[in-house]
Design a protein that fits this description.
Blueprint lengths: L1 H10 L6 H12 L5 H11 L36 E11 L2 E10 L4 E8 L4 H8 L9 E4 L8 H9 L3 E4 L9 H12 L2 H4 L6 H17 L11 H8 L1
Parallel strand pairs: 1-4, 4-5
Antiparallel strand pairs: 1-2, 2-3
Length: about 240
């Protein structure tokens, strides 16, 4: 059994905790094991995953603010009906980059993203313009200055998007995308402790991880399917 646990940990780059590995033992090998035993083995072998909290920023004075229409209802039965977006900071090596992501709450898939060395309105508009959303789709963000800008408001209006915003200083209002950005860092940069990264290497790490997250990384809420697997099975 230990060899199977090691295989699953290595196969998934040591990103899963003992609960997920316990479920994978059953899914992959039809092996039912008490999760406490899996925890003990992973702890003894040094295979437990590690996490680190995400830093947040308080940006400038808002131009336009709307109410929280999402209201922490992160469930939807249809793709591209409810989406969430956020920016996170990539401070690694001697580099400073920003990642803007949009997640479809239907299957928690990252459907658009942009990596840039400049955090401005054009940066988030580039992410938004990757999508052709249905009229009335709900897009939720925080109250960062790029999302409360006139240009972003006009873009959402022209696309027929219903904009929703978190209450100020309330990270839980946008918990899903906050979680994704935290997991991305925990399972790449923090896990492997890379040093002396270049901008290109950071971009490669993020792009490769998003492919892995969308196509391979299982989630319990998706019946242990990846976001893409879940979407295809439901089609």
């Amino acid at each position: 059994m230990i060899d199977k646990i090691e295989y699953l940990c290595m196969e998934n780059q040591f990103i899963y905790g003992y609960r997920t590995i316990t479920r994978l033992l059953k899914k992959s090998f039809d092996l039912v094991v008490n999760r406490k035993k899996v925890y003990r083995i992973m702890k003894e072998k040094g295979w437990l995953c590690r996490t680190r909290p995400k830093k947040t920023a308080n940006l400038g004075k808002p131009y336009y603010v709307t109410e929280n229409k999402l209201d922490r209802d992160f469930h939807t039965d249809k793709p591209m009906q409810k989406l969430v977006t956020d920016i996170t900071y990539l401070y690694f090596g001697n580099c400073k980059l920003y990642l803007s992501s949009i997640m479809d709450l239907y299957n928690r898939e990252i459907v658009a993203y942009t990596i840039s060395d400049c955090e401005d309105t054009d940066f988030v508009l580039d992410t938004l313009n990757q999508l052709d959303l249905p009229q009335g789709a709900l897009l939720h963000s925080d109250q960062g200055s790029v999302y409360t800008s006139k240009a972003y408001f006009q873009a959402c209006t022209e696309k027929g998007i219903t904009h929703s915003m978190s209450r100020k200083g309330t990270l839980a209002d946008n918990a899903c995308i906050e979680w994704f950005h935290s997991v991305l860092k925990s399972e790449t940069f923090y896990l492997h402790k890379w040093r002396n990264l270049t901008k290109n290497s950071i971009k490669d790490i993020v792009q490769n991880y998003i492919i892995f997250y969308n196509e391979m990384r299982i989630q319990q809420r998706l019946n242990d399917q990846s976001p893409v697997q879940y979407r295809k099975l439901a089609a």
